[in-house]
Amino acid sequence: MLNMLQRPKRVAAIQDLSGFGRCSLTVIIPILSSMGIQVCPVPTTILSTHTGGLQTPVFLDLTDYVSQSLAHYRQIGVEFESVYTGFLGSEGQIDHCLAYFAAYPDAFLVVDPVMGDEGKTYKTYTPEMVRRMAELVAKADMITPNLTESCILLGEAYPASPITRSQAKSMLVRLSEKGPKIVVVTGVHFADGTLANIGYEREKNAFWSVSCRYVPVKYPGTGDAYTSTLLGALLGGESLPAAMERATRFLETAIKTTYGYGSDPRHGVMLEMVLHELSSQEPMAGYQIL
């Protein structure tokens, strides 16, 4: 849907580019493009593979490129409906993301604060990097942390056991108090045995939950795929709970398809086999109030 723009909506995606392994920009570009969104990649780093078990990748730091790309886009009058950041490798990259946010204050500013998983902070994230990520989160309209990243942002210990729905709602509100008006937390295990992605809209004081089916394997890039689908649905005019459900169902299909083929998990989800699912106009109404 072109809306009043007479062109597709446009996203500046400030992310790394891993040539093999299906994550970051190699996931973001096809997903958003399939949803009718123009992606303008702003690569922070180029790697031959992701860093999750495929030996030591070839690495090219493009930190300086980020600020130069912004200067050029401003010079030629390029506008963005959204600026979307993911994994960032240095404080300098965070500075450049803040500059993009300042340059496009009317854009929908999205931060996927990629800092850790399974209760552990990534080795590249120093306490100072965590502090600087909190600065970026404070400027965002929407953040999409997992449970580990939510605890890092809140300065809390990772829970030793599944959480209650009351604890989940408290966490969402406290994350929103740090700046973003929309918070979506992925991969939350509840005390009643369910696994869900949960969300909060501060302006409506509304809490949402979309349950997931557990598959006993982890793939790189699934967070990128989820946030990208969520963003594409929101830019397409869907409500937050409908967008959350669309993203959850798409990712569920991608994971189950890949698992069924027995593909090496390090290679990521078999996105090429499921992208057509994003063209579906089926209404989403299976979400629940948290």
The N- and C-terminal alpha carbons lie at a distance of 30 Å
Low-confidence stretches: none
Q: Profile the largest sheet.
A: 10 strands, mixed
**Overall pLDDT metric:** 95
- Extended strand count: 12
Order of helices and strands: EHEEHEHEEEHEHHEEEHHE
Structural Rg? 18 Å
* Number of contiguous helices: 8
| Secondary structure: helix percent | 25-40%
Strand % is 15-25%
Which structural class do you get from the secondary structure elements? alpha/beta
Please list the strands of the largest sheet in the order they lie side by side.
Answer: 3-2-1-4-5-8-9-10-11-12
Shape: globular
Features:
290 residues, alpha/beta, ten-stranded mixed β-sheet, two-stranded antiparallel ribbon, 12 strands, 37% helix, globular
Helix and strand arrangement:
Blueprint: E1 10-20, H1 25-34, E2 38-49, E3 59-61, H2 63-76, E4 82-85, H3 91-103, E5 108-111, E6 116-117, E7 120-121, H4 127-139, E8 142-143, H5 147-154, H6 165-176, E9 182-189, E10 195-201, E11 206-212, H7 222-235, H8 240-261, E12 288-289
